[in-house]
Design brief:
The complex is a heterodimer of chains A (403) and B (155).
Chain A: E1 2-3, H1 4-16, H2 23-53, E2 58-60, E3 67-69, H3 81-84, E4 89-93, E5 102-107, E6 112-117, E7 126-132, E8 137-144, E9 155-158, E10 162-167, E11 174-180, E12 187-192, E13 196-201, E14 205-210, E15 216-220, E16 227-228, E17 235-239, E18 242-246, E19 255-260, E20 266-268, E21 275-280, E22 284-289, E23 292-297, E24 304-305, E25 310-311, E26 318-319, E27 323-328, E28 340-344, E29 350-353, E30 366-367, E31 377-381, E32 392-397
Antiparallel strand pairs in A: 2-3, 4-32, 5-6, 6-7, 7-8, 9-10, 10-11, 11-12, 13-14, 14-15, 15-16, 17-18, 18-19, 19-20, 21-22, 22-23, 23-24, 25-27, 26-27, 27-28, 28-29, 30-31, 31-32
Chain B: H1 2-23, H2 26-42, H3 44-50, H4 53-67, H5 93-101, H6 104-115, H7 120-127, H8 131-144, E1 147-148
Helix pairs in contact in B: 1-2, 1-4, 1-6, 2-4, 6-8, 7-8
Classes of the chains: A mainly beta (403), B mainly alpha (155).
Chain lengths: 403, 155
């Protein structure tokens, strides 16, 4: 028989394992949606009245006080990614034969996706695998040595010859490791007591930047002492050689500089007034403007506000080198509406990601969050399951998308 | 609204922990906390001056969770859920997993009593039910979990 003390201990232990989260941005986003939804409700009600006056049928549901015009104005329909680029979409198992959760990290080529298999327990080794979309098979690349209090690394980068990763997220020191791209044994490269926010690889070195903006560091893979890159003050690594400067430390900060760490070139980002959360790759930027998503070139050219149903609520608004990613607000559980949308900034092509299944929740589009650089894979549960229970992912490999 | 953001920053971690023991799921916890905080934000000027903001959020969270949470359409706003480092096995793994099997109200009563350390009368006030219902729900839940009742006799 158990005692009440067992219950108290179980609850407290469980609570203490929860990872920290920056809630400020999420709460602000939700409050904006609450306000927008109230406005939309009023507008829809008005639209329904107009439709009735014009002789078209429209129904107002008395049950939930929500206007439901017969012709829905808000169910977005985009051609799906699978339809546009069948070779770029694959279904990938979400767990290993041993039952460990597996997630896409980023694409390695037009047919290969790097996958991460979680450690079964905190503080145990995890694993890197590669999924071949043509052969529909997985191959183990190697083991990621145990990371204190974690089931895997905090961030991972892909270089021309190696993978690099770091961890743990909290607690010191942070360790850096590499593994050959063809697979093999992990090698410890360096460690630091500072808080790391990104990792990258050059041809012969491992690079990282720090959360507090105190610079970008480089350590040769051949084994020498790490050194700070000159002129890297206030910069955060995005994808080597590109780094970002920000206008503040706030969670809704804008990127205001795009810097090439190799050449030292620095470009100012020209932002619209009231922009928030602007993020840029070497050429493109995406951000939030009055609750809508905007995209533009770094110099402000070609600025465009995306349709209102595209919600800028992804952690990362950009994927790969030229795509903006948004969640789709369908204005109700509308069958067939996509879960998310991809916008090709270079061509203006819009593609739907996934499909909403009425009565399900928690099926979101995610990029490979483990990837330290903007990921080249987007994925979502294929079935009606929530993310943590998914049996299979549908993966879009952006390296296989043809213009 | 700077002091509201400050409140979120200062109390966010504690609220997430509370959300996690309530729901047993980190994604639901993040969802629950963010929704409750959004509601607090909308009522901030009123709550800050008159009431206890943290009590307001905690009450909102437990009531939302019992009411309808899972059935609500998730608005895809849970962008911030940590992707890993989230253990699913604990030393008390069996008890933790049996807790997931309880009806929401029973589980909430246990969380309020054994995690929040509230008296049965306080739990009754938070949930808007009678003290007798709190006691019967707790007793039923403890029996299901095969937990011997000792401490509760003193309540």
């Amino acid at each position: 028989m158990r005692g009440e003390q067992d219950l108290i201990r179980t609850l407290r232990t469980a609570a203490d394992r929860v990872e920290r989260l920056d809630l400020v941005a999420g709460v602000a986003a939700r409050r904006r949606v609450r306000r927008t939804r109230q406005r939309v409700r009023v507008l829809l009600a008005a639209a329904a009245v107009v439709a009735v006056a014009g002789g078209t049928t429209a129904a107002l549901s008395g049950e939930d006080q929500r206007a439901q015009p017969a012709v829905s104005p808000s169910a977005p329909r985009y051609r799906s990614a699978a339809e546009l680029w069948p070779n770029a979409v694959a279904k990938v198992p979400a767990s290993t034969a041993e039952g460990e959760l597996v997630r896409p990290v980023t694409a390695l080529s037009a047919t290969e996706v790097l996958m991460f298999a979680n450690a079964p327990h905190v503080g145990q080794p995890s694993r890197l695998e590669v999924y071949d979309m043509a052969r529909k098979t997985s191959r183990v690349l190697g083991t990621i040595p145990e990371i204190k209090q974690m089931t895997g690394p905090t961030g991972l980068a892909v270089g021309s010859r190696y993978f690099a990763w770091y961890g743990p997220r909290f607690g010191k020191p942070t360790h850096f490791w590499i593994m050959p791209r063809s697979g093999g044994t992990a090698v410890h490269v360096a460690q630091t007591t500072a808080s790391v926010d990104s990792v990258g690889l050059t041809d012969d070195s491992l690079v990282w930047s720090l959360k507090d903006g105190s610079g970008v560091y480089r350590v040769p893979l051949a084994g020498e002492a790490p050194s700070r890159l000159t002129g890297s003050d206030g910069l955060h690594l995005v994808a080597w050689p590109w780094a970002a400067g920000y206008d503040s430390k706030a969670s809704n900060r804008n990127q205001n500089r795009v810097v090439n760490l190799e050449t030292g070139q620095s470009f100012d980002v020209r932002l619209p007034e009231k922009a928030r959360r602007t993020q840029c790759t070497s050429q493109w930027c995406a951000g939030e403007l009055k609750g809508r998503m905007f995209v533009q070139r770094v110099d402000g050219a070609g600025r465009k506000i995306l349709p209102a149903e595209l919600l800028p609520y992804q952690l990362r608004l950009l994927a790969g080198d030229r795509y903006a990613v948004a969640l789709v607000g369908a204005g109700g559980d509308q069958r067939g509406a996509p879960l998310g949308a991809l916008y090709d900034l270079s061509t203006g092509q819009m593609a739907g990601l996934g499909e909403r299944i009425p009565g399900t929740s928690g099926r979101t589009v995610t990029d490979g969050l483990l990837s330290s650089t903007p990921s080249t894979t987007l994925f979502w549960p294929s079935d009606a399951q929530r993310r943590e229970n998914a049996k299979e992912w549908t993966v879009l490999n952006l390296l296989a998308v043809r213009r | 609204m700077e002091d509201f953001d400050e409140f979120v920053r200062a109390r966010g971690d504690a609220l997430l922990r509370y959300g996690y023991v309530l729901s047993g799921d980190s994604e639901d916890a993040a969802d629950l906390v963010q929704e409750a905080l959004a509601r607090l934000g909308d009522a901030w000027s009123r709550v800050r001056n008159k009431d206890d903001p943290e009590g307001y959020v905690r009450t909102t969270m437990v009531r939302l969770h019992i009411k309808s949470w899972r059935r609500r359409r998730r608005e895809n706003l849970v962008a911030d859920v940590p992707e890993h480092g989230e253990p699913d096995r604990y030393g008390d793994a069996d008890l933790w997993s049996e807790l997931q099997e309880l009806p929401r109200k029973q589980r909430a009563v246990l969380v309020l009593r054994y995690y929040e350390d509230l008296s049965d009368q306080e739990i009754a006030d938070v949930l808007g039910i009678s003290r007798g219902t709190v006691r019967s729900q707790a007793a039923r839940a403890l029996d299901k979990l095969r937990i011997k009742r000792v401490l509760q006799e003193a309540r």
